[in-house]
Amino acid sequence: MKTSNTSLDSGAQQQARSVLGGRLSSPVTESVDQLYEHYFPPVPAYEGLPSELHAFVHTDTESRRKQLNELRGNHQEYGRFLHSCLGEIYTNIFGYHDGPSASVPDDDLEVAMFSARIQLEREVLTHWLPFPDVPRFENQETAADYLDELADTNAGVHHPLFDYLATDAPRENLDMFLRGETIRNEIVDDEVALLTVGLQGTQKAVVAANLWDECGRGKLENFHTFWLRRLIEASPGGWEGFADYRSSHPWFAKITSNTNAMLLTRPAYVQQAYGCFLIFESWVAPHFRKILAAMDRLHIHDDDIRIYFAAHVAVDPRHAEELADGLRFQRPRMTPEEIHKVVQGAHLAAEAGRIQYDHWLSFFTGQPLYKGKDSSV
Ligand SMILES: [Fe+2]
Ligand SMILES: [Fe+2]
């Protein structure tokens, strides 16, 4: 064993200098200051649980089980109920003012919501969207190669919804979809922060680096959510228009966020959450290229509207590659069971995305739900 040495080695020296540099005190422009005046995420303050969730939360386990059992026969209503309720419940995890105990704890309500949430999640994973059967890999290198391939070929990445947006969608449908994307992405930095919990080694470093990017590497105007602030400010109706839209946001637009939140907040699903996030990051660039093509077609040249999408086309292929490398080069080495969980999460994400995009496409075109090529739902 080496004796301790009080002089810093080069590894420790690395951290003697702040990664923030002079950023904390460097002045921001007036327009940056002005955009930071808005509460973010731009959610309404809590005003009570929706009545159906209130009833579900405050009833006993057996009554909940019966209710879910009955809903299974009505596929659309079943999905709507599960995802509307979970979406409301998850707001309370993130600490923003749309949650019932964001400023004052409410022990009884939080316990009841937690138990309702576990029951809803079990329902999702048992009946609505179970973990699919996936190939097994003995080592993390072959699993990483497999996930690189899955990222290019899954049913969500080349979904026809994005061709529709690029070539056919009228402006109002594009605007609606952009607002949906804003809602889906408004707390990604917190989702990435949650993903760091329970990981170690290379995987943790990769996710922490991703979080540092989400936080603009310390520059307020480069926070990814700042690009969303610019998008909201420049969109029809501005912040008020966005608030109006939120109340009619379709339930199916929450499928991927809910899937992610479910995996991120359950201790047993840490590795599934990593695989899920890998897939979500990998399809950002192909999807956003189609959205930018839609903007070209509709003569939307405003940088404030385009920046979120253009920036992610540049950044997210690297994030996806790094997440695959985080698996490939993970130390300590992963067990086959841990590797299996990452692959499971990746497939679950692909399927959640496919279902969500099927619903959007059907909603916009009035056609029956599109079934992707490896459709099972
Ligand atoms: Fe981002
Ligand atoms: Fe990213």
From TrEMBL:
- Keyword NADP on entry: no
Q: Where is the composition biased (Polar residues)?
A: 1-17
The Swiss-Prot or TrEMBL record annotates one GO molecular function as: oxidoreductase activity
Keyword terms, alphabetized: Oxidoreductase
Q: Which InterPro entries match?
A: Haem_Oase-like_multi-hlx, PqqC-like
Q: Where is this region: Disordered?
A: 1-25
Oxidoreductase among keywords: yes
Q: Name the PANTHER family on file.
A: 4-AMINOBENZOATE SYNTHASE (PTHR40279:SF3), PQQC-LIKE PROTEIN (PTHR40279)
Please give the name of this protein. Answer: Iron-containing redox enzyme family protein
